[in-house]
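Can you give me the bound-state structure? Components:
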Amino acid sequence: MFLKLTRHMFSSSWLAILFAVLAFSLPLATDQSWWLQSIWLIGPCLIMISCILNLRIPRQQVFWTTGLLIIVLVLLWLALTMVHDVHIATHAAAGFWCFVIALGLSLWHCMARLSAISTISPLANRMLCLLIPALFGIWLISLWELVVIGFGVPHVLLPAPSIIGEAFSSSMPTLAADFRQTFIKAVIPGFILGNSVGFLVALLADRVPFLRRGLLPVGNLVSAIPIVGIAPIMVMWFGFDWQSKAAVVVIMTFFPMLVNAITGLGQSDKTELDLMRSYGASYWQAFCKLRLPYALPFIFNALKINSTLALIGAIVAEFFGTPIVGMGFRISTEVGRMNIEMVWASIAVAALSGSIFYGLLALLERWVTFWHASFRQ
Amino acid sequence: MALNQVIATMISLIKSHLLKTDALPVMTVILAVLAIWYLGAVHLNSPQLQDRYKKQGIEWRYSQLVYDSWNMKRAVLPSPHQVAMELKKTIIDQNITSKRSLVYHTGVTLSSTFLGFILGTALGIALAVGIVYVTTLDRSLMPWVIASQTIPILAIAPMIIVVLGAIGITGLIPKSLISMYLCFFPVTVGVVKGLRSPQPMLLDLMQTYNASKLQVFWCLRLPVAVPYLFASLKVAMALSLVGAIVAELPAGAQAGLGSRLLSGSYYGQTNLIWAALICAALASALLVYLVGFCQRQVCRRLAGGQEVI
Amino acid sequence: MSSDSVLSSVAVETNQLSLQFQTNDGPVVALDNINLTIEQGEFISLIGPSGCGKTTLVRVLADLEKPTSGQISVNGISPEQARLDQSYGYVFQAPALLPWRTVKDNVVLPLEIMGYSKSRQRDLAAEYLNLVNLQGFESKYPWQLSGGMQQRVSIARALSVEPQLLFMDEPFGALDEITRDHLNEQLLQLWGKTRKTVVFVTHSIPEAVFLSSRIVVMSPRPGRIIDIIDCNLPPDRSIDIRESPQFLEISHRVRDGLKSGHSYDD
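Here's the bound-state model for the whole set.
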């Protein structure tokens, strides 16, 4: 009974209402100008509260959820504008933070309502699958901005997203050159070569069981080893330019592909192998029609792991010596000059290219292995 | 005669044992790697040597070239026995507390590895429980957990160390934060999968007992998730070590395997780099083996528990 | 060559066939001195408890397993040659359909391996999917079908190479009884239409009696034939025949055979 009551009181909706009320009763900043009175927040906060209260009635859920979502996003934009005002930046007071918390809880409430929606339409479902994480992402970045500006966190420690954005747009040519050097010249050739060699060796191991029994344990052991450590050696062997980075990428991507491809090629079950045998199929016929398709989920697993590893390998290798271009070079030199915005802009490029690379592989996987249990509809 | 028979049986025993396990193929692969290593040492070191011979006007023969390339100082690729000597010098011949001892440096790296591993595992399990029990978290957070790993955190680790150092946070904490970031992902993914793996029939059974969510968690979901947890912990442990080593790369770090790698690369002491790498590999293999050992112990106890029920 | 195979009415013949497996606990005799002659157009059921070697026998006939000793001829040639010629069809216990291929593409799989032309592949697939009443499901994926339908696809696949001989290894073992009865009736009709030689492995007495023209009763440890029972029920029988006295009598004989072969001392 008591448990039920407390759970009820602390549910996100009631807390959101509580903090919204606190927001317009407490001061927004330590020294207030006439237009920064918390009293102005009464209107929007009341609309928000009424949306939340209406959501408690089972009728017209979609309407009120959409309404709440829109008002929360508008208020979030308002908060982001307010925080840059000289009176609030670094001087934000209890009222402002209550406002931010109320917004966060309302947004959470929205996401909870959206997650609870069950539609039959696959299109709507896919939209929801994009919308909910997108809202979460928007909230994370906004919160980062609000906290960094509101508390006046020093730039060196963590620059606000808006400042990183400025650095990003003002140094596009440099970032593009870095991207070319690291991603196009080192990551992609290294990724392709490392995966191909890994796959070919797995193929060889598949034909020679003795080799497979030897390579699999060694491969598993090597995948636990910090291979990035060979970066300085590769730089010593292949020089400062992209070749040494590509070499690191080749070695880093080789083993995951080897181990996964060997495992994958062993996935077809006995009945299906017998079936192929009963047709008198040759090794390559059985390989192409049966064993390769079964190995594909494992191969894609390796490709996805390798997409991140490749980027890491190339960037880390650049710490050990580069020409004066490249993401790793940019990160290490700008850190030295305490030009942290630029570092974060480089990180954003790396994160973005890494995510897109991974996303493309995931899409390709979904397309090629549509039949796999994890993708069936 | 009897001795001969004993030897014969022993050989046949060893043979059958070796053929049954993977020891023979693995040894073959390792021997092949060593052979390639020696050949590679000749290939990579000989240009420098030939230059030197020419400058000093020495008549050289291939046997001498091979011998010299395997025993060269500051070789491009030191030969395995040189690395072994370096390992002996830095592990056995040095006092453990000395700054020249690899044991000391490995210890420094391992301490942040462990802290990061524990923090990462805790975070990973907490996130997984949240994701399994709160639908909103599942739908909003899970995509970001996956996206978080496409950020090459390892590549920006040195920066994080420098930045945290600038505001006075140095030593163990920043390094283990990197390890933690790398660790939590496999743990989250594995535990989410594990907590969701009980058969629907068993969940229905718990419902017929009117078990609370907490009871279902302790009696059903958690035990079922244990194998998944350990599989992830092995990956996490290896990643944690990688994280700790890379976090030691910035010039500021005084100790640790990463700083050894860096100083080896600065001063062209390839022996040092290879010794540090092999040390890291051994440490990693040992750590993963340790997790596997714990796994066997826990699973044995869990199996015993099942008999009690 | 062709006149030979027309003249000989024998589809499968084994002579003193034996097979030993080496296991960790020593050798196991899976098949012991099997002598069996199967005529063209017969429906033979192999029945016996698990471990009696009935599946092993079919696997040996299909050259999925090599015998330790003895002679076999399948359609007058060696099993290996028969396999390479694809002169038999094999239906496994599991449907073994490839999940990335549609129903039609699964049926044409053996035809692709034999290098048939595309149009011939299409025609044969359509014909045999029709025969198992699966027209209209060509572009579905296996995982979108029920277990019974999947097994029908795998029968169509085995028939698509138009073999004279069909090996079926407990094809309906994993299905529920209602589906199983239904498929039994369909299989009987199919056999009536095509008059192929069928070697059918089962452990269900009613299934064996209902389908077969002859029943081979086997017993385990070592795997051997202990009885061969003729059962010529009327060709246009339906599933209701199971209540007829004739049916019950044959069932009795099969059961007695199984009992006598069972060693109770272990």
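A couple of observations. Residues 177-194 of chain C form the longest helix (18 residues). Chain C touches chain A through 24 residues (CB under 8 Å).
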